[in-house]
Amino acid sequence: MMRSSQPLTGTNGRRCKEDEKLINATLRPGKRGYIIDTRSLNVAQQARAKGGGFEQEAHYPQWRRIHKCIERFNILQESLIKLVEACNDQSHNMDRWLSKLEASNWLTHIKEILTAACLAAQCIDREGASVLVHGTEGTDSTLQVTSLAQIILDPRCRTIRGFESLVVREWLQAGHPFQQRCAQSAYSNSKQKWEAPVFLLFLDCVWQILRQFPCSFEFNEQFLIMLFEHAYASQFGTFLGNNENERSKLKLSQKTMSLWSWVNRSEELSKFQNPLFEANSLVIWPSVAPQSLQLWEGVFLRWNRPSKFLDEAHEEMINIIKYN
Predict the structure, then answer these.
(1) 92-116 pLDDT per residue, tens
(2) 220: closest CA among 144, 151, 158?
(3) What would the pLDDT profile of 214-242 be if each residue is shown by its tens digit?
(4) Dihedral over Cα of 137, 149, 230, 73: its sign
(5) Exposed (0-12), middle (13-18) or buried (19+): which is 234, by Cβ within 10 Å?
């Protein structure tokens, strides 16, 4: 599995023979490859007018391009603001709360991301195919898909150390701009232009899988909540800056302590270990059915502990989705 930004084909259909040769070199004998574009076809075509675009099938004959639309930036910002508003609603009106929760589309975004990740994992596991995942810049939705696909396929990524390595490899080293995306509190009702809960959505997807496979992960929910907190505000330098180059220029490795060195101390590590964990070497396939996805109460209702009303509303929401 590979990840990249979009090819710069533009309106003139520019080619890069080196890129074509490199991509084709990853194909196994007699196998096809899949290019998963995390943009809709319409958005990808619009990008061509700005110099971007997508791979032309004529130049990549052994590759099949699939578009799996994952929303970006302002759409995700608005979704999170609406979700937080719904979770802070103290009217105790079940219909109103369910309506607000549905209108936020948060669980829909989770379904879209998990669906794309499962597709990438299926191509690799069931067909032995090579997979290339990209969006526009390759630093947001691309990383959600590649990270989750590895969690589905690789049991090492479900361990504490393995998951830490995954975050470093697929998010920090790959250049996810944490400083821009997590500039303010996730619970803020106003967002700056480049803010987006991309990493939070990824962690929410991991939590959904953890819920469905509670014995297959070495870490618990608190581990994911801890990462969410430190991505937005931290005394450590791990998530500072927008990329490795910025962190290097700021000399963060010399001036700050690593989050991982703190987490991996025995006295801290015990807080994040899952007592139900049993090493599972199998591929795990999460369900994306509406009744399988739930609101992450540990994050979104952490200061408004679920009352009997919220418990009943949650059950009602599941039943509505399940039977309609």
Answers:
(1) 788 888 899 999 999 999 999 999 9
(2) 158
(3) 999 999 999 999 999 999 999 999 999 99
(4) positive
(5) middle
Q: How far apart are CA 309 and CA 317, in angstroms?
A: 12
240's tokens: 């500072």
For residues 67 and 297, give the distance between their C-alpha atoms in angstroms, rounded to a whole number: 31
Supply the DSSP symbol for 21.
H
The tokens for 43 are: 């958005």
Measure Cα distances from 166 to 8, 161, 287 in Å.
28, 9, 22
Q: What is the DSSP string of 231-290?
A: HHS-SSSTT-SSSHHHHHHTTHHHHS--HHHHHTSHHHHGGGB-TT-----S------SG
- DSSP class per residue in 202-230: HHHHHHHHHHHSTTS-SB-HHHHHHHHHH
Structure tokens of 84? 């937080």
Whether the Cβ atoms of residue 96 and residue 89 lie closer than 8 Å to each other: yes
Structural contact between residues 65 and 37, judged by C-beta atoms closer than 8 angstroms: yes
Contacts of 220 by beta carbon, 8 Å cutoff, 6+ apart? 210, 272, 273, 274
Distance of alpha carbon 107 from alpha carbon 256, whole angstroms: 36
Alpha-carbon distance of 101 to 104, in angstroms, equals 5
- 3-class secondary-structure state, position 302: coil
- Could you tell me the CA-to-CA distances from 270 to 168, 211, 222, 223, 294 in Å, in that order? 21, 20, 11, 10, 26
